[in-house]
């Protein structure tokens, strides 16, 4: 089987499948309101308060599924539907981001490692178009192949470290939502499906990055 098919096309298919899964799950459970009618913002605030966190700003951001936690500025950003909505999907996403804030406070090792990798990862991402453009026209040039390998080593390590950070945040979110009485046990099904589908995208990102790395290593031979 050609290396291109193994290392690039298969991860691409996995990535597309993961995106479909998360859109499907989020689309479905964003239409299912929670019984408690609590908003995503209120859920995030409650989850963080239970961990003694009162200094994280919760803001509304544009877009869909653009939710994120910024440890540098201690800011938790929720997209409009998740900030103001009270669906099971909104609560799951909000609690997940609050889980990152708890990780930050507790100095969760994988999160600290991920944060330390951000500067070099950003630099590698900026260099990637140069390596890909050069590789397209001068594919057999060892300079561009080695540059691409170095870049994808950084990106692959970053994606690998991201996995436990995201899985742990989802685990914390599920436990807190039930533990605090924000959702009932039977409502957790919708939360689980939303967060599990989102986790597939992180796995797909790692597989894709690893695929490119292996492809470039095979091309150097």
TrEMBL record:
Pfam families: Zn_peptidase_2. InterPro entries: Thiolase-like (IPR016039), Zn_peptidase_2 (IPR007395). Keywords: Membrane, Transmembrane, Transmembrane helix. The keyword Metal-binding does not apply. The keyword Kinase does not apply. SUPFAM superfamilies: Thiolase-like. Signal peptide: none annotated. It comes from the Bacteria. The chain crosses the membrane at residues 6-22, 130-155, 197-218. This is Zinc metallopeptidase. The lineage of its organism: Bacteria, Pseudomonadati, Verrucomicrobiota, Opitutia, Puniceicoccales.
